[in-house]
Amino acid sequence: MEPRSVEEVLARAEQAEAEKLRLITVHKDLELEFDLGNLLAIDRNPPTGLRQRNKSELETRLLGLARDNVQLLINQLWQLPTERVEEAVVAKLPEPSLRLPREKPLPKPRPLTRWQQFAQLKGIRPRKKTSLVWDETSKQWRRRWGYQRARDDTKEWLIEVPGGADPNEDQFAKRLQAKKERVAKNELNRLRNIARAHKVQLPSQGGMHPTGYQSRDELGKAMQVAKLSTASVGRFQERLPKEKPPRGPGKKRQFQPNIGDFATEKKNQLELIRVMNSKKPRMDVTKATNKQMREEDREEAAKKRKIAKGGKRKGRPPGPGAKGKGGPPGPGSKRKGGPPGLGGKKGQRQGGKRRK
């Protein structure tokens, strides 16, 4: 290679430095507005000369415009105070000046509970209570509720039996049961408040709902449930004058009207004719055959068990001197069907009774 002069090396270095400055220097007619807290740059310069270009040139022009704006934003970031964190240079961003829109909608306000609605109607204002109260027993400040609260009656080792109460009743168990009932009642009220806030109809006995405007059917159902809520299930309940006897809670049969929707009737009749003319059997032949075969096998097994039981009872040879049928008689044994003089009855024919 030919040796280069010092002038050429300096010229090339100046050219490279000018190229770098050209890449990071962007000229705009109107300066951009920056919000460094949100890393936002707003370009108010009109995009001139974009409509007369074709698609490829338009994309190239837009990419160049985006590149210039990002370069201006980076130049502003390098003017901020920086620090090194784990071999990385970071800049401290200022507070945002623009409020960007939310990604998700605002949460809906929580619906009022039943007590809050009542307090708002009556004008009752909540009074803030302190969490600590003075406990005379321990002579110190304790929490109003919860663990180690003031006036905690569950820690008492002795309970006075109230007047008129059973002296053999366990007051500790009674107090514990009362607390469980209060907790259950509070939980039920909490669930009712949630259901009322979400407009969910709560299930009730007999399908009745505590509304102010009940229909005639609901009132009749309520009266019937009230009459059946006695010890005799309404058997000895007195009736009102001209009151009809209570009917069962069964459902009425619904019949189609004689004169009604002809299109529906036509559709039902065509469906019935299609089923009647269909070659596909309505009965499952395979299932019916298997059922018949199982019944035949069951009957055959029952006959075999009956024959086996009869053979064990009648085919057993009796021992000497035993009474029985089907075996040789022993000496001095009585047997029907034997010749006279050998222990058989007089006047009987040989062979005994014929088995049917």
The beta-strand count equals: 6
**Principal-axes shape call:** extended
Report Rg: 52 Å
Helix content: 25-40%
Mean pLDDT across the residues is 78
Number of distinct helices: 7
| Spatial arrangement of strands, main beta sheet | 1-2
SSE class: mainly alpha
Main pleated-sheet profile: 2 strands, antiparallel
Q: Beta fraction of the residues? A: 5-15%
Which series of helices and strands comes N to C? HEEHEEHEEHHHH
The low-confidence parts are 331-352
Distance between the termini: 136 Å
Q: Secondary structure elements and their pairing?
A:
Layout lengths: L5 H19 L8 E3 L4 E3 L12 H23 L4 E3 L4 E3 L22 H9 L9 E4 L4 E4 L27 H27 L18 H12 L34 H16 L7 H30 L42
Antiparallel strand pairs: 1-2, 3-4, 5-6
Structural write-up:
With 356 residues, the protein is mainly alpha-helical. The protein has helices spanning 6-24, 55-77, 114-122, 171-197, 216-227, 262-277, 285-314, and strands at 33-35, 40-42, 82-84, 89-91, 132-135, 140-143. It contains seven helices and six strands. A two-stranded antiparallel sheet has the order 1-2. It has a two-stranded antiparallel sheet with strand order 3-4. Strands 5-6 form a two-stranded antiparallel sheet. Mean pLDDT is 78; it is low at 331-352.
Structure keywords:
single chain; 356 residues; mainly alpha; two-stranded antiparallel sheet; two-stranded antiparallel ribbon; 7 helices
What's a quick, concise take on this entry?
With 356 residues, this protein is mainly α. It is built from seven helices and six strands, in the order αββαββαββαααα. The strands form three sheets. The protein has a two-stranded antiparallel ribbon with strand order 1-2. A two-stranded antiparallel sheet has the order 3-4.
